[in-house]
Specification:
There is one protein chain. It is built from 13 helices and eight strands. The chain has two domains: about 220 residues, D-Maltodextrin-Binding Protein, domain 2; about 100 residues, 3-Layer(aba) Sandwich (D-Maltodextrin-Binding Protein, domain 2). It has an eight-stranded mixed beta sheet, with helices on both faces. It starts with a helix and ends in a 29-residue tail after the last helix. Helix content is about 35%, strand content about 20%. By secondary structure, it is α/β, with parallel strands linked by helices. Helix 6 links the parallel strand 5 and strand 6.
């Protein structure tokens, strides 16, 4: 009986302990600086935005706070660095940022040529159209052979061409160096439609209400595509740590932990719950993180669903439905990975 109990204890300890060691920078420089530096895109002011004199809000801010909590045990050790897409790789190579939240698409060519590599999906956005005046349009057929402005990243162009071919619309596609330049060409009337992620287009609406009053995001979805958290591909240990940090709020929602009930589960004997909440005193310390950081996250921010609703969903200015951003078991695309 004693042997059986001993073997069970050994199994439990090993099951909550990651089987890798740190051979590169990992968290070393982040801990030395005492701050996590999060890149945010300059052409999408919905990921991090300000309302009057209030602090910055948005999904990018919440993800940065989440990482700060994991590393430092408090959510305020953050620095937000606004970057255009063209500067993201350089910012990683010059050690100006630790992570990038959104701001670029993911493709094989980007993986080969850029320092930024994706860690996990933050949320799923939709690639959509914006029109200057669509009052008389009844369907996309009314935009046949129209000029389309968009950023020339391969993923956006490929998805638009596929949409065009499926619907036989004969678009005249005008790829430009960045979404910022595509937006400028759209305002200069070089094209009739602007293509971008829904939240980027919402950002245009927010900034352009006094410029063009009839701007409208069309209901058609070109494609659904993920918005990623990126890290430096040369810091393998940090990438591994961030993967499990990003998994925590998703797993919390998956197993039913939230702001209201996490304290009731601190004495749980379920090894998944005790690993996640840090009550086993093993898992997160092995990653070099604060043992009880998930408890702090749940108290201050909540699980993935609660963070989504506050920053993008019904409690935010954007009122996005969960849809593809729901858990896979609820018909969405969001998945979590078990620790055991």
């Amino acid at each position: 009986m004693k042997l059986k109990l001993f073997l069970s204890a050994v199994f439990f300890i090993l099951s909550c302990t990651p089987a890798f060691s740190f051979n590169d920078a990992g968290l070393r420089y982040i801990n030395t600086r005492g701050v996590i530096r999060c890149g945010i895109p300059t052409d999408n002011k919905t990921l991090a935005y300000k309302e009057e004199d209030a602090p910055l809000k948005g999904i990018a801010v919440e993800i940065c706070r989440l990482i700060s909590t994991a590393v430092f045990g408090r959510s305020d050790r953050i620095k937000l660095v606004a970057l255009p897409e063209s500067m993201i790789s350089k910012a990683f190579s010059e050690d100006k940022i630790d992570v990038m939240i959104g701001g670029m698409s993911y493709s094989a060519s980007n993986e080969v040529s850029q320092r930024a590599t994706p860690i996990d999906v933050v949320f799923y956005d939709r690639l959509m159209f914006m029109s200057r005046d669509a009052q008389n349009a009844t369907s996309m057929k009314d935009f046949t052979e129209t000029n389309i402005c968009l950023a020339k990243d391969p993923d956006t162009v490929k998805k638009l061409r596929a949409f065009d071919q499926r619907n036989n619309l004969g678009f005249r596609i005008l790829p430009l160096d960045s979404f910022f330049k595509a937006k400028g060409a759209f305002f200069l009337k070089r094209c009739d439609l602007l293509v971008g992620d829904y939240l980027s287009l919402k950002s245009v609406l927010k900034d352009s209400t006094t410029v063009i009053s009839k701007l409208e995001i069309l209901p058609e979805t070109i494609a659904i595509r993920p918005v990623y958290l990126f890290a430096d591909r040369e810091n393998t240990s940090l990438r591994t740590i961030l993967k499990w940090v990003m998994n925590a709020p998703k797993l919390a929602e998956e197993i039913g932990l939230n702001k209201e009930n996490y304290e009731l589960n601190l004495s749980s004997k379920d090894p998944v719950v005790s690993c996640l909440l840090g009550t086993d005193k093993k898992l997160w310390k092995e990653f070099g993180l604060e043992q009880n950081w998930v408890q702090i996250m749940l108290k201050e921010q909540g699980n993935y669903g609660e963070i989504f609703e506050k920053t993008l969903g019904e409690k935010s200015p954007f009122k996005l439905k969960r849809e593809q951003n729901n858990l896979q078991k609820n018909g969405g695309f969001i998945t979590s990975y078990p620790f055991l």
